[in-house]
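Worked Example 4.2. Read the sequence first, then its C-alpha cells.
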Amino acid sequence: MDLVQQVVEALGTNEQRATDGVGLLLLAIRFTTDQQTFDAVTQAYPDAQSLLTRALAAGGRTAEMLAVANPAAVKKQLEKAGYAEAELEQLGRVVTHALASALGEAAGARVRAAIREVTAA
C-alpha cells in the first residue's frame, strides 16, 4: 500500500493532509541524514522525491525553506498543517515503520532517529 494511503487510513485523515505530513517528514529526513541514507529512502519509496518537492513548494521560496530545515521547524509546519501532538507521534510511527522496514538496518536507524527528532522536538 502507498505510504500516503497508509497515513490516511491510520490517522483517518484526507489525502492532502497525509501528503503534507509525509512530505514534511521526508524533508526532515533529507536535511538530517546523509545523502546515502536519503538515496536509500528514494529507492525504497520512489514517490519520496515528489512528496518532498510538494512540501518544499508549499513552504515558500527556497531561501525560506532553509529556515524549516531543522526538526523543530518541521514540527511547527506539521502543527500548522493541523497535526496535534498525538497525531504527530502516530504519523511518525506509520512513516518510520514503512520506510525503516524497507531499508537496511543502518539506514533504517538513521531514518527512525530523524523522524523521532521531529515528533519529539
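Now turn to a second chain, presented in exactly the same format:
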Amino acid sequence: MHNEKYIIGYTTTDYLLLDLDNTTFNKVCGLVKIMQKDFKLGDCLISCSSDKVKKSFIENCLEKQTQGNYHCIFNNKIGYERICQIVNILSDLSILEPDYKLIREWRGDITLRVSPDNSKEAFRDIPKPIIILDSFNDNNDDGIQYYLNCLMVVNA
C-alpha cells in the first residue's frame, strides 16, 4: 500500500518521456507516429495517466473525442541533450505545458509518475499501459522495459 503523502516517479536521462494532458488518444497516437519517424525514438508505450470520465479506464482512453491524460515512453536511448531539444520544440509549439520545459531545465532529468496520486483534488490511479506503437525500427533499446519494470515493482 502506498503512503498517500508520497508520489513515486520513474526518472531517466536517457529515454524520452512525455506527459500529455487534456488531449485525445488519436492526437497522442498521431504525435507519436510523427516523432518516431522524425526523431528516431523507437517504439512507444502509451499509458493512461488518469481517467476523467467514469467509464472503464481503457474505454475512456480509447474514446476518440474524450479528453484524457497520457504518458508516452519511448524505447530508444537518445541522451539528455536530445531529450531537452525535443521537449523544447514541443513546449514552443504548445504541445507540452511550459512548466514541463522549466522543470526539465531545473531538475536535469525527466520523470513520470508510476504510483497513485492522492495529493490533488481528485485521486489519480496508477498509470495504465494501453498500447505500444511499433516504429518498425530494429534499433530499439530498453526504455519501455525499464519503465515497465519500475511500474511493476512500485505497484507490486
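Notes for the reader: The longest strand covers residues 68-77. The chain has a mean pLDDT of 85.
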